[in-house]
Amino acid sequence: IQTRGRSCSSLAPGDTSCPGPHSQTRDCNTQPCTAQCPENMVFHSAEQCRQEGGPCPRLCLTHGPGIECSGFCAPGCTCPPGLFLHNASCLPRSQCPCQLHGQLYAPGAMARLDSCNNCTCVSGEMACTSEHCPVACGWSPWTPWSLCSRSCNVGIR
């Protein structure tokens, strides 16, 4: 599996959202090393791959918001239905790790999203809270008075 990521540098102050995915994932080198696929894997032709929705649904790290799979169908080894590929192993969805901002998290692991929200890895997808963070708004203390604009005949401070 190949992955790549990118980070968002916002153009406007306070705006941290950029359109599009933050990670891309694809499978690679799907051809068997020997005449047979590794244990727990099955061989699929490119046509079988296309009929079953492409290579992406069978990878652990293609689930969740902000992740885009850019794989293509080629003859090779894949996980059987109901299992998902991660580190050369076919796992049930409940054992799939999660990816958040380029880091991997084990099932059940928690990550801090911001000062008010956390994410938990559940079946290959990060489940995040979405509480609004309170913003401390209000006036600052007054600055000192400026010098008077005139020395006589009513000036302005």
UniProtKB/TrEMBL annotation:
The keyword Disulfide bond is annotated on this UniProt entry: yes
Compositional bias (Polar residues): 1-10
Zinc-finger listed as a keyword: no
Pfam families assigned to the protein according to its UniProt record, in alphabetical order: TIL, TSP_1
Signal peptide region: none
Domain of life: Eukaryota
Domain (VWFC): residue spans on this chain: 98-152
Classification via InterPro entries: Ser_inhib-like_sf (IPR036084), TIL_dom (IPR002919), TSP1_rpt (IPR000884), TSP1_rpt_sf (IPR036383), VWF_dom (IPR001007)
Organism listed in the record: Macaca mulatta (Rhesus macaque)
Keywords for the protein's UniProt record, in alphabetical order: Disulfide bond, Signal
Gene this protein is translated from: SSPO
PROSITE patterns according to UniProt: TSP1
Name this protein carries in UniProt: SCO-spondin
Region described as Disordered: 1-23
